[in-house]
Each structure stands twice: as structure tokens, then as C-alpha cells.
Amino acid sequence: MSTFWSLFIIVISVGSMLGSLWLLFSNARGKMSTEDTGHVWDDDLRENNNPLPRWWLNLFVLTVIFAAIYLAFYPGLGNFAGTLGWTSNKQLAERLQVVEAKREALFSQFRDQDPGALSKNAAALSLGRDVFLNNCAGCHGADAKGAVGFPNLTDHDWLYGGTPETIVATITNGRNGMMPALGPSMDKATLDAVVQTVAHWNDPKLDPAIREKGMAQFNITCMACHGPTGTGNPILGAPNLTDNIWLYGGSTDRIRETLMKGRQGKMPPHQPLLSADEIKVVAAYVYSLSQN
Amino acid sequence: MNKPVSTPEQTVTFYQSAAKIYAREVRGRYARLRNIAMFALLGFYYVTPWLSWNGTPFVLFDLPHRRFHVFGLTLVPQDFYLLTAMLAMAAFTLFFFTTVGGRLWCGYACPQTVWTEAFMWIERYTEGDRYARIKLDRAPWSAQKILRKSAKHLLWGMFALYTGLTFVAYFVPAPQLFADALHFNLAGWALFWSVFYGFATWGNAGFLREQVCKYMCPYARFQSAMFDKDTLIIAYDEKRGEPRKSAAKKEGKAAGDCIDCSICVQVCPVGIDIRNGLQYECIACAACVDACNDVMDSVNKPRGLIRYTSDHHDETGHFHIFRPRAIGYGVIWLLVCAGFGVLVLFRSPISFDVVRDRKQLYREMVDGGVENVYQIKLSNKSDQPHRYRLSAVFVNQHGEDDDLDVSLDPSEFDAAAGAHESVTITARADDPHPGVSKLKFTVQAVDADAHHDDHVATFLAPSERHDSEHDNEH
Amino acid sequence: MKEINDPQFDAADAILRAARERALGARPGLRMLAITGWSSFLGAVVLLAAWLLAIPHDDETIEFGRLASVFIVLWALAAVPALSAAMLAQPSPGAFDPPRRRH
Hints:
The complex is a heterotrimer of chains A (about 290), B (about 475) and C (about 100).
Chain A: H1 3-26, E1 40-41, E2 45-46, H2 54-73, H3 88-108, H4 115-118, H5 122-135, H6 137-140, H7 164-173, E3 175-179, H8 188-199, H9 208-226, H10 252-261, E4 263-267, H11 276-289
Antiparallel strand pairs in A: 1-2, 3-4
Chain B: H1 10-15, H2 29-47, E1 52-53, E2 56-57, E3 59-62, E4 67-70, E5 73-75, H3 80-101, H4 104-109, H5 111-127, H6 130-138, H7 143-168, H8 174-182, H9 188-208, H10 210-216, H11 218-222, E6 233-236, H12 238-241, H13 245-251, H14 263-267, H15 287-298, E7 306-309, H16 311-316, H17 324-345, E8 350-356, E9 363-364, E10 370-380, E11 386-396, E12 399-401, E13 406-409, E14 412-415, E15 420-429, E16 435-445, E17 452-461
Antiparallel strand pairs in B: 1-2, 3-4, 4-5, 6-7, 8-10, 9-10, 10-15, 11-12, 11-14, 11-16, 13-15, 16-17
Helix pairs in contact in B: 2-5, 3-17, 5-7, 5-9, 7-9
Chain C: H1 7-10, H2 12-21, H3 28-54, H4 64-89
């Protein structure tokens, strides 16, 4: 604050303290009389004039002394920062350091091991579960079995690969699963055929004519990402269309919607939020979920 | 306050420097009752830390682990409400008995009284009866005096130390504590508190005595608030006793029954004259009752010149026990005791809660089933580890609905003794009702039939099921 | 009755006076200390049980050293109302004097 306001505060604070002390002590001496002040209210209500109790006076002086000491050490008088240089930001930083040290001690014990080994370490798994429940369960569910648009982490179907190192990369950098909307470029009959083919990929009862039509279109628009056999491409994150695991739903309605609107799956990067050690431990936990 | 009667002045100066109460020994019915109470209570105090129940100490306040073992019951922090109920029960017991019986607690049961009695007994044993004690105090220091005084303090000290150790034994298991003490291996806080309570016992029962009752005790301050004109008090029958023998002689009237022997004042542990009326300091120990009865016997007069009575009884000769105040206190007391009993009896060794995962409403499976995710929070409040089995069943307004299948994964888990477990459960229903349903979870300890509990949670399913034509079914 | 009856020692008056002026009766400062100390001690014991059971402690084992410092703090806290009540309960000088007439 500006010098004027700083001085304003100092003058008023110090002035009031000294002023009240002066007021008390200047009135300390006086005639000790047992008479009252002479005012009468309501015919017989009178006012005495007794001295303040000594203990009260002493406490008051103590509070002034306390105030003087406090204002010397801590900020309070305008711009004067106090001889201790205390700020609440510094206090916060110091407390954060304590927390960080504790976290460091907790996670550093796993620093030397790779996530694959950690996935068999009970202590690491317990810690990983805590990190998971705090950071991942919101989208992937507390049981890690996912929801519509959020993958099931307990199965063996991995969009980008399921090795522990890949999981670490997924968590650290995030993923952007982009499925373009290719449906509007197809006519209705072709679109129907593609939808039926994809939905009933392994079903022998599907009409061969529809399958042929569908596969023809598949090879033009879909094969580039989902592979010639439809088994997906981990580099692009294109799912395996031949299995029974559907991130956005496997009914024909949902597949049609996928084609018509496309999909934008977003896994946020957790790198600044979680430290590398935390990511390693939670990756080990996630990996362990699909291992039994 | 009546005018006190005294013997000539010269005896007063004799007494002035001896600021002590030398209570005369008393025998009688109430003294016997007090002795029985003393033995029973002290016995209970010293024996209890050594008792065990099912392997755990019978009474142990395990502060570091926050478990209080009380008469076979193990209280954990979740049972805090029981502590409150216990305190309420203790308070109302005190209030009820005070309003009916007066200061029964002070005279017979209070630890201050009980330990003072024991210490006075030791004092009488080492220093002699009242006159011997007074003479000893007045006498100059001699071998005899040193011997007697140090014997007294030695016995007091040993008794106090034993008391202090026993007090700590309510917090640290007794066998270990006393073994350490006997091998002079006691250290740290156990040593500090043993010495602290030993010193407090020695000071309170050896020196302070009635000062605690007169000045320091909160019960002494508020006990009279529970009194009414029917509460039992100890009183001197003025009508019968006055004028006293010495006063009557002076005034030339016929003497009442009081022969002014002042033995009632000599036996009083708090140093009051009950003939002056009921006073704040009187702890209703009934020593004066026994003493006066004894004297009345020896002068062939009827007993009861000082006796248990009530204001109302003094006026009309009736004891009126069942009056509104007493009945009111009694009813509340019974309710609180019954309430406490019910709480204890129906206390579950399990604390069980089911929290539904809120992020997604439900999870539709490819095969048409619906899953909901839950967090099971279970506290195993018992002393043994257990394995628990979980099951779930849908409930509607008519009760349980067994037709709808529900499976849980996982359905079994372990919990250590005193542990709080948080387990993630996936509940899967093949064909649930659309929308909101109620799912009752039951947890049952596999090896303990009594440990079970249930909790009703919500299960959500889509409110419109998909048309089967559009489903991707195989 | 085994004990001797000697009028020198029996005077009821003398016994009462000795009892009245004994120990704390003649030492008002010490009396205040004893009253405050004892009632706050009792209060601190109950507060300690409440602190142990009612405040969440996350499954940790509480060391006796920590318990002791908490107890001291609770004792000091309990001393505040105890001291206030004791001071307020003291009769003011002249409290038991016969009332003065004003008119």
C-alpha cells in the first residue's frame, strides 16, 4: 500500500494503544470517596465511582506489551514487514514442502523398479489403488470396468497397447481417440450394410449380400485405420471391431451413431498432476487388474 | 446456627497451634457398613486390573490404540455414543440416590472417603488413638516419635504407591506393569503416572482429607440442589436434646438428653458440630450417629439423639419417599439405564456401510445385464480377524424379491481385528427393473454367526430397455 | 469407649475452630489453586476420553508422550472455566453484611 495509508495505519494503531494507556493512568489518581457521583435516576438509582480492579489493569498493560512485541515481530503496522519476515505464502510453501517430503519418502521406495515388477508388489499395489481411486475412478469407475466412452481397464482389450510401459505413456501424455464421421459420406443402403457388418462381424447368420456390400465399403473407408482384418491398430488407437468389447456400445443404433457423428475420446495427460513415481505405481495397479 | 456451648477459655489456647483434625475412633452399625463398603470398593479397585475375559483384560483403557475394554465389552471410537450414555447413566444414578438418600456417595462410596478411612486406620495403627496422637504431636522429637511417624509414612507411602501402580494398571496391562515395577524397570510415562497418582493419594488421604470435600469437590457444591424436605439427612434432635446438660445447669432448667460430651464433634472427620444443624461440610458419614448412640446406651437413654431423618420426618414423623421429584429422577434413571442396556446389547461388532459409485448411473453389458459399482465400508470392531461373505437381493415394497438374480464381484473379503476395510464391489443384475430399485446388501462373517449386518442401497438401470432387434446378441 | 475423656481436649469450640482454620481454610490463594486445579483435572480426564474417541485419528497409534501433551493442554483449557467460576463464586467483601438502608 502507499506510504500515506501505511502511515495512517501506524499512527492510528500506535496512537490508540498509547492513548488508552494514558487515559487509564491519568485517571488512576483521584479522590477515593465512598460517595456516589451525585447523579440520580428513577428516584433512587445511584452511580458509584470505584477504582478498577488491579488485576484488570495489569491484564490491560500486559495486552499492550503483547501487542508491542507482536507488532515488532509480525506484519501489522502498515508496510512494516516485521523482524521475523513472516508471510502466509512462505508458511504455505514450508507446509507444502513437508507434504512433498512425505510423498517423496512414500513413492521413492518404488523408483528403481519397473511397473511390471511393481504389479506384483503388494505395497505398490495398495498405493496404486489409492492413487487410482483418487484420480482415475471418476471416469473409469471404482472397479476400473469403465463406462460408455471410458475404457474397461480390467479386460485384455487395449486400444493403444497393454504393456506396463505403454500404460505409463498413456497416463503421462494422454490419448486422443479420433474417429472421423464417415457416415454422412455414404448413401443409406451402404451405411446400413456397414453397420450390420460391423455389428455382426462374427455372426454366420448375417446375409452374405449385406456382408459383401458392407465389406466393400469397409475396405475403402475403414480399413486404413481399423486394419484389413478389422482387428484394430494400436498405433492409432483404432479399436478391434471383431470382438465383443465396445467402447461406445455395440448395438446397431450405437454403431450407426459412431459412424454418423464420429467419436472424440479424450484421455487427459496426467503428467503435471501426478509425478512420474505416482504414474508408475498407478500403472502397475492398472496392469495388475488384467493379470488374473 | 444455635449458640455454641463451650467449656472455659483456658482450653482454647492449648489447641490453637494444632491445626489438625484428630477424629476419634467410632464403632457402630454405620461404621460397620462403611467398613464393608470400604473393603468391597477397595477390593474391586485392586483386583479388577488383574482379571481377564476371553484373553483380553476385563477392564483396560488402551489409550494408544483407542480401544476401551470395559467389563468384557470392547469400545472403539465408533462407540463414542456409548461413553456419553455411560456418563449420563452415572450422573443420573448420582442424582437419583442423592435426592432419596442424601450424601450417600460422600459418606460411603467416594474414593476420597474410602482412602481417607484406610489411611486413618493406618494412622491409628502406628500412632495410636485420638489422645495418643494429640500427645505425640505435642511432644518434642524423640526416637519414639520418629519411629512412629516414619512407620506411618512408610506404610502410607507403600499403600499410595500400590494405589498409583494399580491406577496405571487400568491403562497398561497389570502383569507386565507390576513385573516391571518389582524389577525396578519401570520407565517413562508409566513411572511418572504411578508416582503422580501415588503422590496424589498420599497427599489427599494423608493430609488434605476433608479439604477436598470442603473446597475442591464439585459434587459437594451441587449435591444440595437435589435435596428437598424428604431427603435423608443426619440431624440432631433438638427438641429432645436441648437444653444441654451444662446449659440446663446454668439456667436451672430440666436437662434434655444431650449430656454435652462433645464426642459427636470428636468423631467428626470434617470437624463440624452436627448439633448446630445440617451444614455444607457434613459428608453424612454417620460417625456422630454411632458415637451418640453409644453414649446414649451408656447413660441408659434411648438411641437416636443424632440420627438419619428428613426435614419432613422431623415435623411429622413420616418418611415420604415416593414423591414427584424422587419418582421423576427414578423414572429418568431407569430409562437411561434401560437405554444404555439396549444400546450395549444391540451393538453390532460390525460397522457396515454401502456407498454407490456416483460417476455413472449404470453400466450396460453387451449381454443385456446391468452393473452398478459400490464401495463397501466395513469396520471389524471385534478382536479377531474375520472373513466376510457379501450377498445382495432386490427389495420392493412387499419385501425381498428373490426372482431377480444379482451377483457380486468380489463376494468375499477379509478384515483384520479393528480394521476398516474399503472394498470395491461390482453388482451385476441380469434383468433388473427399469429405473431405480432398492438393493439390500448383507454381510456375514463366515466364522461368526452373530456378526452380520445389512444395508439397503440404490440400484439403477436404464428406464427404457433397448428393443431386442437392435441389440447385438449372439 | 476406649478413649479417655479429658476436658482439655474435648472442647467442641476448639475442635471447630481448628477444623475451620486448618490447611486451605486459612490460605485463600492456595485454596483457589486447589479448587481450580482439581476440578479442571477432572474435566481434563473426561475431555481426554472425548478427544481420543470423538476426533478422527486415521488408525494411528497414539504415543503416550503425545497423550501427555494433549492432557496438559486440555487441563489448561479446563482451568479457564474452573477459575472463572471459582472467582465469580467468591463472596465480594461485605456480601454478608446486613443491608444498609438508603432513605
